[in-house]
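Hello K.,

You asked for the raw outputs rather than the summary table, so here they are, unedited. I folded two proteins back to back in the same session to keep the settings identical. This is the first:
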Amino acid sequence: MKIAVLLAMALLPTMAIAQAPGMMGQAEMENYMQVMQEMQACMEKVDRAEMAAFEKRSEEFDAEIDRLCAEGKRDEAQKKAMAYGKELADNPAVQQMKKCSEKAVSMMPKGEQSFMEDFDFTSHHVCDEFEEE
C-alpha cells in the first residue's frame, strides 16, 4: 500500500466499526464517540512539521520502491522497505500516532490490523504489495 493511504488509516483506525453503525447499541456508540474525541485530541499534539517531513519522505520512498520494483530489483526494494519500516517505528510522530490510535484499534473487530502492521515487510514482499494498487 502507498504510504499516504497508510497515514490516512492511522488517523481513522476504526473505520470497520463505523461501517455498521446500526449494529452498535447506545452505550457502544457513546464509548466509540468518546474514544474518537480522545484520539482527535491526542492527534492534535503530533508535531505538524515532523509530519510534513515524514509525508515528504514517504512520497520519496513510494517513488523509489515503485522504480525498483518496475526494474525487477525486488531484493533491493525489499531491503529498503525493511529499513524504512524500522525508520518509521523509530519516528516520534509515528510513535505518537500509534499511541493515539491504540485505544481505537482495541475496539476494532478481530482480524483488523493496526496501520503499523502494514509497514512490517517480514511476512510479505513490498513489490507484491505495491503491485496490488
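The second followed immediately with the same parameters:
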Amino acid sequence: MTPDKATLVGVAEFAEEAMDGNEDKLGAKVEFLEGCAAVYVMAIGASAIKKLLAKGVQPIRVDEVDGIDDLLVEISKAMTEGGVAWIDRALAAQAKAKTDDRFATMEEEGWEG
C-alpha cells in the first residue's frame, strides 16, 4: 500500500476448523501474513495475538460496520500525516530495509574507486 494506492497482493483460503483450542490451525494463517504490517480482525484469541506480534504483524480489532474502503482511507491518511504507531513503525522498517538493501548491493558490487 502507498498513500495513493492499495493493491491486493494475495488471497488465502483456509479449511474451516473446530474452535476447540487447536493451536495448530494458526500456523498457516500466521505464516501467510508474514511480511504484513497489520491485519484487521473482528475476533482474535490471545495466542493468535502473541504469534502475530512475534512475526511483527499488528492485529487490529474492527467491527462488522467498518468498511474496507474506509479503513484504507484511514491508512492512506496516516501514511502521509503520521501519528498512528503501527503505521509509523511499518514505514520506518520499510525505509530501513531499503537502506540495508542499498548497502548490501553496494557491498556486492565492491567498493573500488
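The helical segments are 24-33, 46-54, 68-81, 85-109.

Happy to rerun anything if the numbers look odd on your end.

Regards,
P.
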